[in-house]
Amino acid sequence: MAVQVLIPTPLQKFTANEASVELEAASVSALVEALESRFPGIRARLCDEGGKLRRFLNIYVNSEDIRFLDNEATPLKDGDEVSIVPAVAGG
Predict the structure, then answer these.
(1) Is residue 58 part of a domain?
(2) Domain range spanning residue 41?
(3) Alpha carbon distance 50, 80 (integer Å)
């Protein structure tokens, strides 16, 4: 199942400056593993010490926030687009 992953600018240094990558994954958690396999070290930027996605990251599958789907268990299918969006804070 090939999915397109949109990589935010701050993480592109881990993906050889690629803004978009295509990977095979059946779920969001499997996608994190596929990213780590292809780009060693990126998981530490995406996940905390417990292996859960960091709170300041928003992940969208076809523009749907995974927090309103099945979180990391959200299934992926061929042709899906996954966006990784760092939260922006300030005041």
Answers:
(1) yes
(2) 2-86
(3) 27
**Residue 12 located in a structural domain:** yes
pTM over 0.85, yes/no: yes
Give buried/exposed letters for 24-63 (b at 16+ CB in 10 A, else e): ebebbbbbbebbbeebeebeebbbeeeeebeeeebbbbee
- How many domains, the chain? 1
* d(C-alpha 83, C-alpha 90), whole Å: 22
Residue 91 is predicted with a pLDDT of 60
**7 neighbors 18 (Cβ within 8 angstroms):** yes
| Domain contains 7 | yes
